[in-house]
Amino acid sequence: MYNDIFGAGNYFIEIQDHGIPAQRKIMEDLLTIGKTVGIPLLAANDSHYTHAHEADAHDALLCIQTGSTKSETERFRFHSQEFYVKSAAQMRSLFPSADYPDACDNTLLIAERAEVNIEFDRTLLPPFTVPDGHDEDSYLRELVMAGAAMRYGIIDPEKAERIDYELRVISDMGFSSYFLIVWDLIAYAAARGIRTGPGRGSAAGSIVAYCLRITALDPIEYGLIFERFLNPGRREMPDIDMDFDERYRGEMIKYTAEKYGTDHVAQIITFSTIKGKQAIRDSARVLGYPYSTGDQLAKAMPPAILGNDATIDQCLTKPDREASAEERDHFNAAAGLRDLLVTLDGAPEIIETARGLEGLRRQDSIHAAAVVISPEPLTNIVPIQRKGDGAEVVTQFEMHGVEDLGLLKMDFLGLRNLATIERSLELIEQNTGERPDIDNVTLDDEKVFDMFRAGDSMGVFQFEGGPMRALMRNLGPDEFEHLIALNALYRPGPLGAGMHLEYADRKNGKSPVEYLHDDLEPVLSGTYGVMVYQEQVMQTAERIAGFSMSDADSLRKAMGKKIPAVMQEQEAKFVAGCVTNGYEEDLGKKLFGFIEHFAGYGFNKSHSAAYALVAYQTAWLKVHYPAEYMAALLTSAKTNKDRTAAYLHECRMMGITVAVPGVNFSQRDFGAHNGAIVFGLSAVRNVGEAVTDLVVAERNENGPYASFFDFIDRVDVQALNKRTIESMIKAGAFDSLNHSRRGLLEIAYQIVDATVTRRKAEEAGQFSLFGGATSTVTDVQPVIPEHEWDKKIRLGFEKEMLGLYVSDHPLLGAEKLMNTMTDTQIPELWERADRSQATIGGVIGALSRRYTRGGEPMVYFTVEGLTGAVEAVAFPKTVAEFGPMIREDAVVVLRGRVDHRGDEVKFIVQGVTEPELTSDDSVRVRVSASRMSATVAEKLKVVLANHPGSSPVFIHMTGEGPERVVRVSPDHAVDPRSALFAELRELFGPTAVM
User: Fold this and answer.
1) What does DSSP assign to residue 202?
2) How far apart are CA 341 and CA 335, in angstroms?
3) Is residue 467 within a helix (H) or strand (E), and if so which, with residue range?
4) Rounded to whole angstroms, how far apart are CA atoms 355 and 374?
5) pLDDT tens per residue across span 765-809
6) Across residues 509-521, what is the average pLDDT?
7) Can you give the pLDDT at residue 388?
């Protein structure tokens, strides 16, 4: 039948021989069928790897993918080592023509029938439809000039010349349609109210992009260079990456597909590969060695240099003369790994297997940003597939292959921080009736810079990490340019070279500002003589060596790659240029060494400036609208409980109350009301957005709920699921109705059952109210008991339903005591060196007991502090000594070491203690007697009145004589919470609370 369909000579019987008995068993049958029916044979070999020697690596990869070890007998495996690409001679030897007539010849015949010509080095830009009377160049110019008038008003000669130059380069390189495509996407987003970023990457250096509102920073004002983005010597497609509010990225892709055709637009596949450290760990596991063996070898791999990881070959093979400096550095730093290869049991086998695994593709997924737009149906150019939850169309070539084919690759990045800014503005507008123009706030707000200088930037885009905050406190930024520099300096290379410290010292006058030559001052004065940006490398080459900007960009790229032969060529050209410009040859060599030193660490100023603007905007919102901003921030992180916990702690430190969800004031997500933050109802486990929408819709239509009975009676019956109601009670959603959680839960099922039965009966026409239709259904309103759970149980349920403690925390009020017992906060473990010792404190959460091969117990558990959580591991020795203390909900202090493994950080527990936290609960403040004026005393009364409780307050008065301690009247006893401490610190200073 198939032979009839495809025609004689187009249908074959495939034969394979991988040395598998089952294949050989059916071979005679296949030969018989071929002869009987008259169908020719076709020799083939299934290939899962390229070369025969890769069979072992492929087998190890199968073990990784199936979670098994090579020693397991029943695991999934290939039952021969013949699944590689064989040569013609090998195939003809396997299938001789005498036994398998024409089988190999037919394989060649089919190959010769195929004609595949892949064209490279072309530009496949989709055309952009322009108005009548225009071509792409003229329409782009019209849009740019209109935009320039809006941006600048009067266009002076400098700006006009820059615009003309950029438009000429864009036109000569054939990229006008590209700029029009990007302009159209940004314009669509603006019309739809979708927030876009101020720019990303080098595109912010283009005045054309600025006039088109693709970017938001004036490149002339900030010294951003167009040639870093696009120049005639750089023939590849320009790269304008776009940031969108993450909620609307899908809409932007949908618009693009509708405009250019669904068969012309696709997302791009990405392949994750196995790197050296992971290959070693995986190899040790699949070969059956202890975790510690693979861990020791992996940690002997050298650290990355400028973000580039060493390969195993670079660690083991001595580099030749032509090797780059980076390759030599990798080899020198890997001496420990080479020593272990000799001394550590199993190391040679593990390393050999890892070399085969390194670089292999572990899995494929959809690139987080990349989208391709084609001038013709994509299937004419690149293979595609459907992938993902929404069955998105995805290319089967990764982005570099797509670009090599000349297709337009664009990055549509959904940025969480843009969504946070937009949510903040929406909450501010809801609460005040006004919407701040965040895109036009001044960039010199002193309150914002006060926050940066204090390092209080938790939750601020790019500036919330502990070391970054420490760097800000050291630097003391005073202006927007300092934020740009901080973005560029806070990277592994500059940090490792100490550039951040040198920059801070020069800025603050601790070190002199020096230049190798006075002519460098115009280039480097803005960064105190430190070469921070790639653009400064280019400007130096132009000013001192007479390079064109195109040549200067080539120099920048060469310095980034550090290929010795290329560097020698560039140095000769640079020195010759210096001599031609009247400088001494020795100075030229010194200058080249100077910029070579910094070029490897230099960062793209255009990108740094654009992201500094987003950072400033988030900081401005945090300073001026703290509750709304923090609510938006919590919403953005609601799926990440560790980050949510850190932001919740920040709210407490800022004195912002965070309330549990409430049926009368919560929306879907976090909200802000009267300076406080309210959890969204959808955050409650077993509730979700559908139930939340029903609760909010009824409340909006008919007013607040008067009681639990009123809620049960009014809300849509679909929301009256017992599990849902129980979860809402435990989370505190009915606290505002003045019901105790425990009492409510005891009668909730009874009320829900009776009410649901009654309401269904009413819907069926059975009424029992005042002469209505008779019914056996009656209302039940039992008395709700007033007793409540103790704090530990109540908080335990709250955390179970919300994922973290909200209304209170087991450690609140005990921060000072816990701080005396520990030496670091949990989030700071990320910054600690691997294997370094640390002591942390917190509450034990989810706990899992496991056993070693020898049957000894191990315990994995989370430990949660006020600022975050971390996974802790107690090995058998620790469990034997401290096991009884490792139990859920226990408050503990843990001594141990930091363990960095892959992208995670773990805490290896070596000791456990249970601290006594019931000591003095008094609040003590130390303040200078000279500060205690009548006005300050009145302010203190107000602060204490805001936090009534049972704990006494003591004021430690300091002055010339001995310290005096004054007890405040019992009428002003307080609840010792973080919010109180934050207000006291604001009144008396950061070190006042004892």
Assistant:
1) G
2) 10
3) helix 466-475
4) 38
5) 655 544 444 444 445 577 888 888 888 788 888 888 888 788 777
6) 91
7) 67
In angstroms, the CA 980 to CA 944 distance is: 8
Gap between the Cα atoms of 155 and 173, Å rounded: 25
Q: Contacts from 3-11 at CB under 8 Å and sequence distance 24+?
A: 3/37, 3/38, 3/39, 8/38, 9/40, 11/39
Encoded tokens for 94: 């396997």
CA distances from 686 to 71, 289, 743, 945 (A): 43, 42, 21, 38
φ, ψ at 128 (rounded to 5°)? -110, 125
Express as a percent the part of the chain with pLDDT over 90: 41
- CB atoms under 10 Å from CB of 679, counted, come to 29
Nearest residue to 459 via CA among 660, 666, 242, 636: 636
User: Which H or E element spans position 171?
Assistant: helix 157-172
Name the β-bridge partners of 913.
893
What contacts 289, CB < 8 A, 6 or more positions away? 346, 350
- Hunting for tokens 């390759």 — which residue is that? 327
Give residue 62's region: left, alpha or beta (phi > 0; psi -120 to 50). Answer: alpha
CA gap 908, 312 in Å, rounded = 27
SS (H, E, C) 284-311: HHHCCCCHHHHHHHHHCCCCCECCECCC
The pTM (predicted TM-score) of the whole model is: 0.78
SS3 at position 314: helix
40-49, 50-59, 710-719: segment of lowest average pLDDT: 710-719
* Number of other CB atoms surrounding residue 4 within 10 Å: 8
| Residue located via tokens 């203690």 | 913
Residues 931, 658: Cα–Cα separation, whole Å: 32
Segment 284-306 mean pLDDT: 85
What's the token pair of residue 480? 């927007």
Half-sphere exposure of 429 (CA within 13 A, CB side): 10
Q: What letters, b where the CB count within 10 A reaches 16 and e where it falls short, cover 219-230? A: beebbbbbbbbb
Element (H, E) at 397: strand 392-398
- Distance from C-alpha of 415 to C-alpha of 424, rounded to nearest angstrom: 15
Of the candidates 653, 541, 608, 584, the one whose C-alpha atom is nearest the C-alpha of residue 201 is 608
CA–CA gap between residue 459 and residue 464 (Å, rounded): 6
Phi and psi of 466, rounded to 5°?
-55, -50
As given in the structure block, the two tokens for residue 772 are: 């209505």
pLDDT at 90: 94
Q: Tens digits of per-residue pLDDT, 377-421?
A: 999 999 999 876 667 889 999 988 888 888 888 889 999 999 999
DSSP tag of 898:
E
Closest to 873 measured CA to CA, from 910, 839, 840, 836: 910
- Quick one: which H or E segment has residue 915? none
Task: Report whether pLDDT(619) > 90.
Answer: yes
> 459 — alpha (psi -120 to 50), left (phi > 0) or beta?
left
> For 232-283, how does the pLDDT look when each residue is reduced to its tens digit (9 = 90+)?
776 677 788 899 999 999 999 999 999 999 999 999 999 888 899 899 999 9
Q: In what order do the strands lie in the sheet with 658-659?
A: 658-659, 676-678, 671-673
| Other CB atoms within 10 Å distance of the CB of residue 37 | 11
For residue 604, what are its two tokens?
A: 């793209």
What is d(CA 976, CA 986) in angstroms, rounded to the nearest whole number?
16
Of 950, 985, 424, 847, the C-alpha closest to 672 is: 424
Mean pLDDT of the region 436-450: 94
| Residues 329/305, Cβ–Cβ less than 8 Å | yes
| Angle at alpha carbon of residue 838, lines to 834 and 839, rounded to 5° | 155
For residue 70, what are the CA distances in angstroms to 73, 187, 391?
Answer: 8, 56, 35
Strand bridging mode 904-913 / 869-874: parallel
Average pLDDT of 313-318?
A: 90
Rounded Cα distance, 949 and 972, in Å: 8
Nearest to 572 by CA among 558, 324, 603, 232: 558
